[in-house]
Amino acid sequence: LPDYDQDISVFDYYLDESGEWELWRSRVPDESYFDAADLLGEVFVETDQTIRIRLLMELVRMSGRNILLVGPEGAGKSCLVNDFLDKQVTEDKKLMVRRFVYSSNSTASSLQRFIESNIHHRQGYDYGARGGKTLSVFIEDLNLPEADMYGVQEVNELLRQVLDYRALYKLQKPFEWRLLEDLVVIATMNTSFKPPATGFHTPISKRLKRHFAVFRLPTPVAKTLFSIVTCVLEGNMSHNQGMGLQQELHEQITEVTCSLIESVQDALRASPTPGRLHYHFNLRDVARVFQGLKNCPEEMRADEDYVVSLWQHEVQRVMGDRISRSDDSTWFERKVKDLTKTYFPEKLANSPSQFFVTFNTDTKEFYTGRAVTSTKITIKPTHQAVVSLDEVIPCLDTYLSRYNDEFSTSPLNLMLSSHVISHLVRIHRILSIKNSGNVLLVGPIGSQLSDLAALALYMLEYPIHTIDCSYRGSFLDGLRSAVRRAGCDGKTTTIIIKDREILDDSYLDAINSLLISGEYPPLFSEDEINSLLQALMPSIKRKFSSFLTDPMKFFLTRVKRNLHIILCLQPTHKVLSSASSHYPGILSKCHINWVKHWGEEALVGKAKHFLQRHSLFQDDASSVLRPSVVATLASIHEFVLQDCHHIPWAGGMAINPETKSKTKDLKQAGNETNDPYGRNLLMERIALANRQVDVAMPNEVFVGPTTYDRFLQCFMSLLKKKEGEIKNLLNDSRLCLNTLCEARKDADKLKHYITKTKSEFEEANVTTAKLLDDLTAKSTVLEKLKAKLGVGSDTLRSFIAMIDNEIDDDDSYLFVDEEKDELDEDFERIQVAKMKSRKAKTVEEITMAERERERLKEELDEAEDQVLIWQERLDRTCCERLKAIQNPPTMIGMVMLMAMVLLGKQEFSPHSSGAASSIRHERKSFDGGTIADDTSSSGGHSKKRNRLEPGQPRAPPQPTYAGTEH
C-alpha cells in the first residue's frame, strides 16, 4: 500500500489502469448538486461505497450474472439499483427493465404470471423479451415471502428453478418447457436483525444464493453521512433554480441533522415493546425533512431564526409524529432542544417555537361556488408561520361549513378542538407533498381518521377516488382506474382505505407494491402498458424529452407524484406489528401520524371546545367556574381510562415521566444506555414478559374517543336538565311568592274590613242598648199609666209579642240569600248554556226522527205498491205450473213462504218437502218482529230496484216458468 494508516484497509484501494494503488474516494465525482433533484424531489449522492459497488455491478452485468445487493434498512440499496438501471437503460437500447416487489403474500403463481407476461416466443422453445431485448428483472426484498410448514419459500424456489434451468414450465401443457433467453435478475435484501416478537426475515436458501454475485452496502456513518446530508440539502434548496442557504447556516443545519439522526437511530430502535414496533429512522427521514425545508420562501432563507424554526417544525413532523410513546416523545423533544442549543446561538435556541401551516389562513380570499371535483393542482405548498393554532380556527370553521353545505347528505361531525386542529394541519402538510404524499393514520376507534383526511383533501381540492373493497376483483379494478388516472392522465388521485376494508392480505400486497415501485404487475397486461405508454409519448416529447428512452420511468414517476394513498388503522392492527417484515413499503413510504387522544392536553382542549361550541359557561359570571369544569371533565375521563386499563395500551404514556438526575463520573456515564428512561423500559419489559394473557383483567371495558364524546353529551344533557329543573323551581317559587303577596294584601284588606265591622258593631251595640233603655223606660211609664187608668193586662203581652216579632224578623233576615258573586254568575251561565245545548240537540233529534219517519213511510208505500204489482202478476196459470212441480227448488219454496207470510196465510202442510220444512223450521226459530223487519227491509230494497219513473206505464205481469230464477 502507498501509505501505512490503521484507519484505512486494503478494501479502500483499487488498482487503476496503470497498475497503481488509488483510493476509491478519488473516483467520487467532485460535482455540485445544484438543482440535482429529479421530478420526485429525490437526490442520489455518490459515495466511495456506491462507486465501488457500482463498478463491480457493471463488471458482473457484463458477464451476464445475477446481482444481489444486501444491507441494513435505509442504506440506499433500492436507490442505487434504480440509478444503476436507469443509466444502463440510457446506454443500452436493448435492455428492458421490469420491477417486482416481494411481500409476505408473494406466491409462486404471481411470479409465474409476471414472467409469462414479459416474455414472448422467439423460435422453437426459446422465449425472451420482446424485440430481442435483455429482460432485467429487479426484485425488491428477496427474503420477505413467508415460508410454508416445511420452511420453504415457494416463490423463491420457483425463481431458483428458473435460474437453474433457464426454463419455465407451461401450466397449460404439463412437462413442456419454455427456454428463457437474456434474463438477468437484480435483487435487494434487508439484513437488519429483527427480534422474533416483531417478525424476522426468512433467510433465502443457499441453492438460490449461489446464482447471485452478492454485494453489501453498509449504512453511511461519519464523513460519508455528512457528505450525503449536505448534498441532499443543497439539491433540495436549489431545486428549480432556488436560492440556497448561507454557507455557515448550511453547515450548521447539516451537522445538527447528522447528530440528530445518529442519536435517534441509537435510542429509538424497533423492539417488541408496545408502541415501538414501527420505529425505523434512516436517511429517508432526513430527505423528507429537507424536502419540507425547500418550501421556505426565498425571501426568508436569509433569516436564520425562520430557517431554524422551520427545521425544528419539519423534524417534529417527520420524526416526532411517528413516535407513539409519551416518554419517547419527551426524550425526542429534549434532544432536539439540546442539539439546537449546541449548534445554534443562544438567541435562536431560546426563541419560542413557531407553528407552520401549509394553507392560507386568510378567510377573505375564499371564493364561493367551489367544487371539489377539480383535478387541476393550483395550490403550491408553502409554509405560513402562526403563533398559535387558534389563528387557524376561523379558516377551518369556514372550510368545515362549506364542506357540510356542499355534501349535506354526508356531513362531517368534527369538533375543532386544538387536538383535532393539530392533526388536521399535519395531514394537510403530508398530502401537499408531491413526492410520496402518502399517509398512515393510526388511532383508536372513534378517532374520525377518515373525516380528518376528507376535510384535508377538501382544503387541497383533491378528489377522493372511491374503491369497492368488497372483493378482490373490484379492489383491483379500482386500483387500476386510479393508477391510470394518476399516471396517464396526470390528475391527482386520492385513495382512502380503512382497516375494516382490508379483507385480504393481497390488498396489502398491492398497496405495498404501489408505494415502493409505483406499479403492481397484476393490474395491467403488457399490451395495456404499451397502450398507456403510447398515450404518454406526446406529453413526453413536448415537456420531458429526457424520458424518451425510458417512458416507463416517466409513467411510474407520475404515479408516485399524483397518487396519494391514505391508510386508517387501529393501534392494535396486525399491519403495524408485522409491516417491517411483511410489507415494509407501508412504513417506509408513508408518513405516519399517531392520533394520541389520551393526553391531558387533548382532553382539556376537547372539553373546552365542547363548552365553547354549545355556549356553556361562556358568560362573565361563569369565567371563574369554566376552567374548573373543564379540568374536572378531563380528570374524570382520565380516571375512567386508568380504571379500565386503556391508558398504557402502548406503555410509557405518562406525560411527565419521573427521572432523577445524579452527578456521575466519566466511567459511570460511559456505561449508560442510549435508550431513554432505560429503567422504566426494563420494568415494562419485565411486566410484559410476566403478564398472563389469557386471564381477563378486571374492569376490562372498551373506552374510546366516542366514549368521551358521549360523556360530554351526557354532561350537557344533565346540565340542561338540571337547569330546566332549577328554572321550574324558580318559576314555582316566584309564583308562590306572588300568591303570598296577593294573599297578604287580601289579608290586610280583610283585617281592615274586620276592624271596620267591629267598630260598626260596637256602635250598633251602643245604639241598641240606648234604644232598649229608652224603650224600657217608656214601657215602664206606659205600664204605670195603664195601672192608674185600670186598663187590662194585655198590654204587657202585646209588648212581648212585638219583641218576639222583631226577633223573628231578625232570624228571617239571616236566611235571606246572599248576594251573588262572579262564581255564581259563571255557574248559572254554564247551566243556561248547557240547557240551551240540550234543547238544541233535542230539537235536532226530533227533526231527524221526523225525517226518518217520513222516509220509512215512503218506503212502506212503495213496498205496498210493489206487493200489489206482484199480486197482479200471480195468476192461475202460474199457480198450476208451480203445483205440477214434484220436487220444487229451494228458491221456489222460499218465494212461496214469503208470499204466504205477506198474505197472512197458514203455511203448514203435513206433506211439505224437506227443504220447505227446514226453511219453515229456520223461520220459526226467529220471532215475529225479526221476520217482519226482514220482510220490510227486503221489500224496501226490492222496491228500490223496481221503482218506476214518473209517467212510465207499468209493465204487464210476466208468466213465471218453473226452474227460472227471478
From TrEMBL:
MF terms in GO: dynein intermediate chain binding; dynein light intermediate chain binding
Pfam families in alphabetical order: AAA_7 (PF12775), AAA_8 (PF12780), AAA_lid_1 (PF17857)
GO terms for cellular component: dynein complex
GO BP annotations, alphabetical order: microtubule-based movement
InterPro entries (alphabetical): DHC, DNAH3_AAA_lid_1, Dynein_heavy_chain_D4_dom, P-loop_NTPase
Family label: Belongs to the dynein heavy chain family.
Protein name: Uncharacterized protein
Naturally occurring in which organism (per UniProt): Paramuricea clavata (Red gorgonian)
